[in-house]
Amino acid sequence: MATRSLQASKFVSQIGCYTYRSRILLPTSCKCSYETGHKLNRLKSTQTNLNVTQEGTFIENRPPKWKSLTGKHHHPEIDLTFENAKEAYKSKRTSELVRALMVFNLCSINFLVDNQKKILKWARKFLGKRLFVSMMRLTFYGHFVAGEDQDEIKPLVTRIRQFGVKSILDYSAEEDLTSEQAVSAEMEGCLPQGNEVDNPVDETGTRFRAHEEFGDRRVKVMSARTYFYEGEEQCDKNMQIFLNCIDAVSHATEKSGFAAIKLTALGKPSLLLQMSEVLVTIKHFFKLLQKTQGQIDKGSLRFGLEDFDARLSEIGVQLNDGNKRSWVSVKDISKGFEVDLLDWDNLLEINRSLSKLLVVPNLKTGQFQPLVECITDEEEYQMKGMLRRVNTLAKYAQDKEVRVMIDAEQSYFQPAIRRLTMEMMRKFNKERSVIFNTYQSYTKEAFNDIVVDMDLARREDFYFGAKLVRGAYMEQERERAQTLGYEDPINPNYQATTDMMHSIIEEVMRQIHLRPVGRIAVMIASHNEDTVRYTIEKMKEYGVGPGDRLICFGQLFGMCDQISFPLGQAGYSVYKYVPFGPVEEVLPYLSRRAMENRGVLAKVKKEKRLLSQEISRRIRTGQAFYKPAPSTV
């Protein structure tokens, strides 16, 4: 226990070493906000190309054509219509294809999907546990879940790897709480023990406070698991589950896969809310300082000591001589001193309390004030417990040579999750990519966020790993923002999200050439065929080959095999998000898969057509009892 506490202390001490200026200001400094980045993607000059300097500004120094990074740039011929049913299902027995077709057909029946919980409850009672489990293995469980434990899933994981597809393992057992239980747990976990104070900079506090009408975070969320706080003991149990998942990755995938982790499972969510509010409030404060620059030096948002006090005065902040240095920490970065408003240095090593961490600037008084009136000893303990668990998991994954994918969550948690994940990268990604962050391209800040984080990784020379997704919480986020009266954090429509995702993909390709080979690795986790095609074309354009293993693709197990397996067999790096767990404990996960497939009828229609084609082909050619043989590619 003492050893783990020491590890937690060492980890938390890293948090303060991260200059918050770089997290917030570089998008403007880089001239690469989403709008300008989107325009850059359409620049098709063969004479002028763009790179990014250490300070983050674009310069015209890229050669007319990108050169191959490793010489492994050959792109094999592949049918990018994804219509080749034979290639898509080479890894499956005919019985598995029949089961898949049956499951997709059942997902198209609205009555069954709408009443699935009642039907499953009745079936469990009528059939008994043994027959019910057998029925689920022959249908939904068998199609969407790999097995119950690491020993059972290993044959399947090994088989799909033989066909070019690796695995991200996720232990998907979860408690099926009622809505009332979920709301109760959420309110208990999201409300601090002390009274919250009004946010003195802007209205962002509304966004980062608990609201009972949105207490059940599962509502309108189909593709992501939700954790609710049930005490520190349960958080420790969740950590042990994740440790077991890391073991499963090491055992079943021979260290070729990932383990998926959610930070809301590891601590009290109120701590993430408060940390997120502090981070976003400081961001707004920097924006106020930015406005004092006018047209002078507008390409840089670094504040030196010589003009910091003047900028504060311009926005109405009056400081007594003895107080101004308590606002800031002074950083010696590159060519001189800079000001960092968020002084989180040596958080635990100097015994700093949580109350000194969770503070925001008050422009009227010229002082930092606490976000919560009183931080209790219990809350201090809970914060240290969450950081201890995060550190324990990252260190264990590093020792096991397993990579960890930190999942993205709701926008009101995400600033804290992103900050903590980047701190984990700074500590554990020094020699190779261990920690991967997740960026949701349906958020308005997605482009800015990943550019800032890649820039930090380059300047501090650690490995950057990321997963790029569209996002899982759109409907819920929109409704919450509209109801509570804060700006909608989500892009206005599907096309805007696609444009955002494609802009990020091209920016990643450019950034790859700014660093030594292998220092940036990004997974494009998408079921959208157009996005996959776009990524492959950009890989060709920028000289990033399948064999470089810098860009990989990801899809859910049991879905979009027509994308995953042809890519994998053509030599691209591809992963399936593979859930596992006991049958009766993964029913909530299966419920979400059924609803998700019902909601994407066009994609499911294509999969059903391809499945029917391949089943018919095998019957016609006498291959009804086909057994998969490892790919020779």
UniProtKB/TrEMBL annotation:
Pathway involvement of the protein, from the record: Amino-acid degradation; L-proline degradation into L-glutamate; L-glutamate from L-proline: step 1/2
EC number: 1.5.5.2
Known cofactor(s): FAD
Record-annotated Proline dehydrogenase domain positions: 341-605
Molecular function (Gene Ontology), one example: FAD binding
SUPFAM superfamilies for this protein: FAD-linked oxidoreductase
Transit peptide in keyword set: no
Pfam families assigned: Pro_dh
GO biological process, one term: L-proline catabolic process to L-glutamate
InterPro entries registered for this protein in UniProt: FAD-linked_oxidoreductase-like, Proline_DH_dom, Proline_oxidase
Record's keyword terms, sorted: FAD, Flavoprotein, Oxidoreductase, Proline metabolism
Any one annotated GO CC term: mitochondrion
Catalytic activities: L-proline + a quinone = (S)-1-pyrroline-5-carboxylate + a quinol + H(+)
Primary role: Converts proline to delta-1-pyrroline-5-carboxylate.
Family: Belongs to the proline oxidase family.
Protein name, as recorded: Proline dehydrogenase
